[in-house]
Amino acid sequence: MTPTLFGRWQTRLFLLATVGILVTLPFYLGLINSKPSSIYFWVLGYVALFGIGWDMLYIYLQHFRWDRDWPGAFQFIAGIWEAIFVAVLITIIGLPGIPKEDFDLAAFALHYSLVWLAIYLASQTVMRILFPYWRFRGGQLF
Question: In Å, what is the CA distance from 6 to each residue of 13, 27, 37, 48, 141?
Answer without folding.
Answer: 11, 30, 32, 14, 10
